């Protein structure tokens, strides 16, 4: 999780009474942190956003939305390539359950950031403190530099 993610969460939290940050449990993906660890990090880094809730889910995001009474998905987009993929997902989610998608463009300060890039820089000893919260950087260092 980067400051780009937190920026989108903060901006979206201003638009809605309640914002759910949904952490997808993808068993086929070899994630650096477990779902539980990601939920914990997200809860800690969004603690100053009183209307933000964090939960994990498996399956379809539209089922998560319906379970939590959310009629809108918020997605951050960095570039046109992100939008192409996100638009297809938005159309599928609308077709499945009538869930709308709102796209929030990334703040230009964070438009180049990606979790993969942050992980690579951390692994090779680089300083990512201007890109991620301190707790995230500490956990990245702990996990990646012991390999």
Automatic annotation (TrEMBL):
Protein name, as recorded: Phosphopantetheine adenylyltransferase
Pfam family, one: CTP_transf_like
Matching HAMAP family: PPAT_bact (MF_00151)
Annotated site residue numbers, Transition state stabilizer: 5
EC number: 2.7.7.3
Residue ranges constituting the Cytidyltransferase-like domain according to the UniProt record: 2-119
Organism ancestry: Bacteria, Bacillati, Actinomycetota, Actinomycetes, Glycomycetales
Cofactor (UniProt): Mg(2+)
């Amino acid at each position: 999780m980067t400051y780009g993610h937190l920026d989108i969460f903060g901006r979206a939290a201003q638009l809605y009474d309640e914002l759910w940050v949904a952490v997808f449990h993808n068993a086929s993906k070899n994630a650096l942190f477990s779902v539980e660890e990601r939920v914990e990090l997200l809860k800690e880094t969004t603690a100053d956003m009183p209307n933000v809730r964090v939960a994990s889910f498996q399956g379809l995001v539209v089922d998560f939305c319906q379970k939590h009474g959310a009629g809108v998905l918020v997605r951050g987009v960095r570039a046109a390539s992100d939008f192409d993929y996100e638009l297809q997902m938005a159309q599928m989610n609308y077709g499945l359950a009538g869930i709308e998608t709102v796209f929030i463009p990334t703040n230009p300060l964070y438009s180049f950031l990606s979790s993969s890039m942050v992980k690579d820089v951390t692994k090779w000893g680089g300083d990512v403190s201007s890109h991620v919260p301190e707790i995230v950087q500490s956990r990245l260092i702990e996990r990646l530099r012991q390999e």
